[in-house]
Every structure is written in C-alpha cells, then in structure tokens.
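Let's practice the habit of predicting before peeking. Look at the sequence and jot down your guess about where helices and strands might fall. Then scroll down.
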Amino acid sequence: MNRTGRRSFLLAALATGVALATPVGRAFAATPPTVDGSLNLRDIGGYPVGSSSVVRRGLVYRSGTLSLLTDKGVGQLAALGLTEVVDFRTASEVATQGPDRLPAGVKRVSTPIGDPPAAAAHLATGSPDPKQLAIYQGYVSNASWRAGYADTVRRLLDGAQRPMLYHDSAGAHRAGWLTAVLFTTIGMSKAQVYAEYLESNDALGGTYAYPEYLDAAFARADQDFGSFHDFLTIGLGLTPPQITRLSTVLLTSA
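Done guessing? Here is the structure:
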C-alpha cells in the first residue's frame, strides 16, 4: 500500500473528515509544532506543576503515527532536534500503516504495547468502549506492556536519548497513558493530567479519549499494587532515585 493508500486507510479508521493536524488552543503550553502529515503531535511541555514549576518545553513530544509525514514534514520534524522516537505500535499496525518517516540520524525504538481491537479502537464513540477500558487496565496488569513503558521512562531519564518522542497509531491511548503516568509522578494535579489527556479529542476531531479510561488504569494500579507509587516501584521497577530524577528532568522554574 502506497502512502496515499495508507493515508486513506488511517483516516477512514479514525473517523470521516479527521485532519492530519496538531491541536490548537492549549491553555498552558506553547503552540504545537507544525509537522506536515503528523497526527495528534504535541509537546508535553508548558504545563504548571504546583506554584513554581512548569514542564520543560522542547524535551518530550507525543503523537500518533509518523508514517504519513510528507517530505516537508520530515524536515519540520528534524527541526525538533529529536534523538529517539519510541514506537508503541504493534507489528500488524506498522504493516498496515507503514513505517515511521524519520529524519536522518533519529533512532526508532520499536516497543510494541497493547492489542488494539481492530478499527474499533480508533472510532469516535458516544460512550467509553468496554474493550478499550480493558486495554487500559492491561497497561497496568500486563507485564510485557509494563516493561515497554518502563523502558521508555528509563530512556527518558537517559540524557543521551533526549529530546524524544513516543507515539502509537492515533496518539490518544498508549501515548496518553504514559503521559498521564509521567505527569502524575511529577506531582501535576489530577485535573491538569486529565485535561492534557483529553486534548487528543480536539486533535482528532471526535471523542476518542474518555476520563473513564484513565480512571480504569489508575484504579487497576491501586488494585494490583496497592498505590500509584507502588505501581511505579514494583510494576515499572523504578527506583526512588529514578522517580525523583523524573521531576529534575521534566520540570523547570515557572
């Protein structure tokens, strides 16, 4: 399938009329970078944490597939100065959508997470999808998926891997959960964590992300590990110094 065919397939799977664009109108962050052909791409920086800190800009990005970038988009992506791109898509997703189109010198790390329920995971719905709720619980309960998230966090802590971008197909779910984990770990308010997560709906032109999805994952973390902190230490295998270092890496003075 050529790029035009992949573009048509992905758009049909997401929803009729969805534009390949970045979201607009973020309350606390910088204007999303313009990358032609990208899907749901944004800098996670710019959000306040407490009264005196803000998430660093230009350090970590999240997005949907990068397989549809135009030549111009590849050049615009290069301008972000990325060192590494972590791809959460499964082999079947990559085969259908095509490989990432990356600038020369940017390393792609294949970290398959999840088992999206075919096109259903990418359709806008009027209420939370029970299958997707189960997948969010799996982000916590599935040891292999946890290992993928843990590896990505450790890569983020390694200065040689930054700036970095992580992505899945649409940029809403797998990338959304990791961003929620990062933000919760560094002490961001629940309201702001959820607000950032729901921005994917603006970017995708429909309701794909529901608060109930994050609720399901956080509840499963409490159920399986006793607390979110124990999910980090036992579930993801992060040490207390690594957890502390996340704040050092991601935060700067407001």
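How did you do? Confidence is low (pLDDT under 50) at residues 4-9, 11-29.
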